[in-house]
Specification:
Oligomer: single chain
Number of helices: 11
Radius of gyration: 42 Å
Distance between the termini: 88 Å
Strand order of the largest sheet: 3-4-5-8-7-6
Amino acid sequence: MYENNQNTYQAGYQTPPQNTYQAYSQYAQQVPPQQEPQPPQPSPKKHATASKLLMSVCMGLLFGIFAGVGLYTVRLVTPAEVPAQAGAQAVTSGTASTAAPAALPDMEELQNLLSNGETQVTVLTKEETDLTGVVADVMPSMVSITEHYTISTTYWGQTYTQDGEGSGSGIIIGETDDEYIIVTNNHVVEDANDLEITFIDNTTAPAYLKGLDASTDVAVIAVMKEDLDDETMDTIKVAELGDSDSLVLGQNVIAIGNALGYGQSVTTGIVSALDREITTSDGNTQRYIQTDAAINPGNSGGALLNMAGQVVGINSNKMGGESIEGMGYAIPITAVRETIEEFMGRDTLIEVDEDDMGFIGIYMQEVTEQISKYYGIPVGIYVSEVVEGSGAENAGIIAGDVVVGVNGSNVKSIDSLMKLMKYYAIGDNVDITFMRNEGGEYVEHTVTVTLGEKP
C-alpha cells in the first residue's frame, strides 16, 4: 500500500488569512475620531450576532478550500495498487493513511512520481514454498517394492509354512547398459522369496539382489532393462544424491514413499535432529537423521529430500513405535554412500535352480541374540562340523568358527544364509566371512570358498 508523504501533504495547505471582522477592527482603530456627530450605533447584541454570522461564513469557505486541496494531494501521491509481478510484493515508505482515494494513478503517473523522488518503493521477494515442481521432478526416480516371503513355524515336530506379502519403497540411483539400480532398506528385501517393482507409470518388473548390509540396513537391487518397455524407460529417471553432512537443524525436507502399500505419497517437515544414535531391535546401532515428516510402514527405503530435490537420506520405519508421533528417521546418505557404490559394482544375483545350488560344506547351528549374550559367541552361523573334502575345509574353515557374511552381505541366521546361497551355483567362488576364537577373543577372517555339490 502506498502511503502519504507528510511534507507533500502539508504543502497543499495555505496559511489562513485573518478574518474580515478582525481586519475591519484594526483598520477602525487607525482612523482618527470624527468631529461631526456619529450616526446611531447598533445595539451590542445585534453587533455580536452579525460578527458571528460573518465569521462562520468565512470559516466554511476556508474549510472547503483546504479539504479540496488535501484530497487532491492524497489522490495524487497515494496509489493504492500497483500491477504485481509474480513472486514479488510492493511496499512504500511513509506514514499510513486511512483515506481511501477516489481514483488511482496509472503506471505512467506512478513512474513520474518515482522519478521525481516524491515517494519510494521497495520490492520484497517471497520465499518459494510451492513444492509441486520439486516433487514432480523427483517422482520418476521413486519406486514401490512388493516382497513375497514365506513364514515357517514348527509345532510338535511339524513344520508349517505360510506365504505373506509386504511393501516398501526404493530409489533409482544408477543405470547401466543392462539394468536400473535401486537402493532400499535391508529389512525390506532380506526375507523376500521374490521382489516386484512398480514404477511411476504403474508398470511392474521383477527385481534381483546385488547386495545386503544388515548393519547399516541398506540393500541394493536391480531391474533388468529387458523386462521394461521403451515407454517406461523414457518416463523413469535416476535420482541425484546430495550431501547429508550439510544438513542443519530446522531445514525443510520432503519424504516420499509407498506408505502403507497404497502407492507413492509425499509428506513434508524439518530436520529435527542430526546424528541421532539409535539401537534397532536386531541390535545394530547407527546414527540417523530425525525429522517430523511422517514416515509410516511402507515408507522404508524411500527418499528424504532437500529443497533442491537431492536425496539426503533413506527413510526407515524400523525405529519408534505406535505411541510415537512426529519422529521419523532416515539413514544419512553420505554415511552409506561407500557401501552403496560397492554394491552397485557387484554382479546382479540371479536365482539358480535348486539342483544347481552350491554347497559350502559345513554343518551349522544358529547363534541368536539370546545365545550370544549368554555364551559370549558372535551372532551368526556356528560351524559344528566341516565336511571332509569340501570347499570350506579346503579354504581353512574349522569347527567352532562363526560365519557372519557371504560376499559382503551380513548373515545372522540359517534362513538368511540359505536365501543368499540360492544365488550361487556349483563351482562359484564366494567370500565367506567368519569369526574365530583366538585366545578368548573373536577375530574376523575372510576366505574364498569354491562351492561344491550338496551331498
